[in-house]
Amino acid sequence: MSQARESTGGVGAFIRNSGYLRKWLILGVAIGVIAGLGAVVFYLAMEYTGRFLLGYLGGYDVPTAAGDGGDAGSTGFPRWWAIPLITMGGALVSAWIVAKLAPEAEGHGTDSAIEAVHSDPRAIRARVVLVKMVSSALTIGSGGSAGREGPTAQISAGFGSLLARRLDLADADGRVAVSIGIGSGIGAIFGAPLGGAVLAASIVYRFDFDYRALIPGFITSGTAYAVYGSILGFDPLFGFVVPDYRFDPVDLPWFAVIGIVAAAVGYLYARTFYATVALTRRLPGNKVVKPAVGGLLVGLMALAIPQILSSGYGWAQAASARETLLLIPVWIVIVLPFAKIVATSLTVGTGGSGGIFGPGVVIGAFVGAAIWRLADLSGLPGIPDGPGVFVVVAMMACFGSVAHAPLAVMIMVAEMTGSFSVLPGAMITVGIAYMLISRTDVSIYEAQRYDRSTEFVPPDR
User: Fold this and answer.
1) Which of 46, 393, 398, 410 could be 364's S-S partner, Cβ–Cβ 3.0 to 4.6 Å?
2) pLDDT at residue 459 tops 70
3) Is residue 118 part of a domain?
4) pLDDT tens per residue, range 148-194
5) Same domain, 289 and 143
């Protein structure tokens, strides 16, 4: 044991005494490799859990996005009665594991990692990483409405915290290590390395940008993406949604409308989610029963609106193409953003384990799809032939604004959809949505600080 400590201390001294380039090449590559491998392991765990619980036991195959295989999924529930039981059972077992082994793994995980950056970058326990991975795979695999990014962010942020602890890094270096862990984990699982790197520098503040994490984030996020893609492929998550789109100034009024609506829905998402968290704390019952009840309610909702189950990326994929969007009933397209907000709040807000970034992207996708569908039905002029452009920019605006990371999310969604051609119009949409949200005190990540020098203070209204 003493030899191991001396060895670790020697490595720590070497890294601490290294120059900027050598230090962050070593740390960045190390965190990136773990982020990429962690994303692979979690993805496979989530995939196989879903196939067994929903697929084998429930007889229902969830539709998948193009990058996940592009499976159209099942058209109905052959064993409808099993779906609420599966969502409840998965939430129950997941919550029990968290309560017994690592209570801090409760919820979406990204806030815990952000808080570690600000308060103590050495504080994330190694046990949390494993518990988060297993519990989130159970939650999402059983049909809970949650995203895959929270667990992967906590895996790589946890490794950054471990390095800060074992190598006795300075606090400033420890904060950067955890920040780039967050960004690289999210960037890897979504196949969005540039967005992940920018996210590392922006996600910890509401109205600021940590330039110290940006360049190390390039190294870490690029490494994580290389590892993840080498094993599971480099295709964009949603394929190439609008590869032939060319910016047309005629679309600008529609981009403005999408920005306003996306900001309103993003605001509702954050308010509903944290209202559910607050209500759950006041209700009777322990931390195992409450997520199970939330899971049961999600399963019952899914009998009427199956699109709320699991991550929902396959349904976002369907919403991006005219042919598949027209197959979804109009009322579901309109209601789905709000149903997904409720389902995510019931899944994660009650204490379940999973991310909130992914559902935010799906919510935004159906905001864009609903606007396009209603405009198409009304015969309004100036809309594109297909919904893809509206879907992509609404994805960016809805979550980018409420996460206070507009640039990072805009880049990430462009990478996830292969749709960089929409960026000129998307800047209008995201800019409007972010300016509207910035006039409020709302953020989907409560652990964010106002800026690098002060605690959060709401801006003048």
Assistant:
1) 398
2) no
3) yes
4) 888 898 889 999 999 999 999 999 999 999 999 999 999 999 999 99
5) no
In a domain, 461, yes or no: no
pTM, two decimal places: 0.93
Decide which of 232, 258, 280 is a domain's last residue. 232
Same domain membership, residue 70 and residue 161:
yes
pLDDT digits (tens, 9 = 90+) for 103-154: 887 877 788 889 889 989 998 888 888 999 999 999 999 999 999 888 898 8
User: Which residues have CB under 8 Å from 19's CB, separation 6+?
Assistant: none
77 and 192 both lie in a single domain: yes
Which one of 179, 202, 232 terminates a domain? 232
For 163-195, b where at least 16 C-beta lie within 10 A, e where not — what string?
Answer: bbbebbbeeebbbbbbbbbbbbbbbbbbbbbbb
Q: What is the CATH number of the domain that holds 210?
A: 1.10.3080.10
228 and 257 part of one domain = no
Which residue do the tokens 């929270």 mark?
A: 150
Same domain membership, residue 181 and residue 135 = yes
- Cα separation, 441 vs 461, in Å, equals 10
Q: Do the Cβ atoms of 236 and 416 come closer than 8 Å?
A: yes
Task: Tokens for 283, please give them.
Answer: 């209700």
What is the number of domains present in the chain? 2
| 355 DSSP β-pair partners | 147
Q: Which residues contact 308 (CB under 8 A, 6 or more apart)?
A: 145, 298, 301, 302, 336, 339, 340, 343
Residues 85 and 120 in one domain: yes
Contacts of 454 (CB under 8 A, 6+ apart): none
**Residue 349 belongs to some domain of the structure:** yes
C-alpha pair distances (Å), 296 with each of 60, 88, 140, 407: 17, 4, 14, 37
Beta-bridge mates of residue 353: 107
- Work out whether the CA dihedral 163, 164, 166, 168 comes out positive or negative: positive
The letter for the amino acid at 83 is I
Query: CA–CA separation, 221 vs 229, rounded Å?
Result: 12
Domain that holds residue 207: 2-232
User: Residue 452: which region, alpha, beta or left (left: phi > 0; alpha: psi -120 to 50)?
Assistant: alpha
Q: What is the DSSP string of 172-233?
A: HHHHHHHHHHHHHHHHHHTT-HHHHHHHHHHTTBSS---GGGHHHHHHHHHHHHHHHHHHH-
> Is residue 1 predicted with pLDDT exceeding 60?
no
- Compute the distance between CA of residue 130 and CA of residue 148 in angstroms, rounded to an integer: 14
In whole angstroms, what is the distance from residue 370 CA to residue 388 CA?
Answer: 12
Phi-psi region of 123 (alpha: psi -120 to 50; beta: other; left: phi over 0): alpha
User: How far apart are the C-alpha atoms of 237 and 187, rounded to whole Å?
Assistant: 11
452 is a domain residue = no
